[in-house]
Design a protein that fits this description.
Layout lengths: L2 H14 L5 H10 L6 H11 L2 E4 L5 E4 L9 H8 E7 L2 E6 L4 H11 L4 E6 L3 E6 L2 H12 L1
Antiparallel strand pairs: 1-2, 3-4, 4-6, 5-6
InterPro entries: Arg_repress, Arg_repress_C, Arg_repress_C_sf, Arg_repress_DNA-bd, WH-like_DNA-bd_sf, WH_DNA-bd_sf
Function: Regulates arginine biosynthesis genes.
Keywords: Amino-acid biosynthesis, Arginine biosynthesis, Cytoplasm, DNA-binding, Repressor, Transcription, Transcription regulation
Length: 144
């Protein structure tokens, strides 16, 4: 397998699964019949500039830096948004741990003209839109 194919496969694995250790990544690749060594995977991980991010079930997992994410904003929203509630012109958004600040930035860039303010902590966002209609549009976009 070419290095470029292996790198693409590693990106796909990191998006689809929670890889907690280098050994987990080596095992995932071996399960897919990709012959690799720990040293090769270590070099690939360094080249991809992988980061440690909070895992859904506690602990930390390897993740791609935001600039390397292969999926669209919509797919990314679906992967981190656990629930959304709407009340008037406000949205309460529950995210996976550690994702709220990144989501906040994306919401502000994508819906800037519709948002009055956004407050967030580690896994929760309160978004206040200028109007109920705008809040509903944001809700519909995130919920679908």
């Amino acid at each position: 397998m070419k290095k470029s194919e292996r790198i693409k496969l590693i990106k796909d694995i990191l998006v689809d699964r929670e890889i907690m250790t280098q050994d987990d990544l080596v095992t995932a690749l071996l399960d897919l019949k990709v012959e690799v060594t720990q040293a090769t995977v270590s070099r690939d991980m360094r080249e991809l500039r992988l980061i440690k991010a909070p895992a859904k079930n506690g602990g930390y997992r390897y993740a791609l830096p935001e600039s390397y994410l292969p999926n669209s904003d919509e797919e990314w929203f679906k992967s981190v948004v656990l629930g959304i509630k709407i009340l008037g012109n406000q949205l309460a958004i529950k995210t996976s741990p550690g994702s709220a600040m990144i989501l906040k930035k994306r919401l502000l860039s994508q819906f800037d003209t519709m948002i009055f303010t956004v407050l967030s902590d580690d896994d929760t966002i309160l978004l206040v839109a200028y109007s109920e209609d705008q809040a509903e549009k944001i809700y519909d976009r995130l919920a679908n």
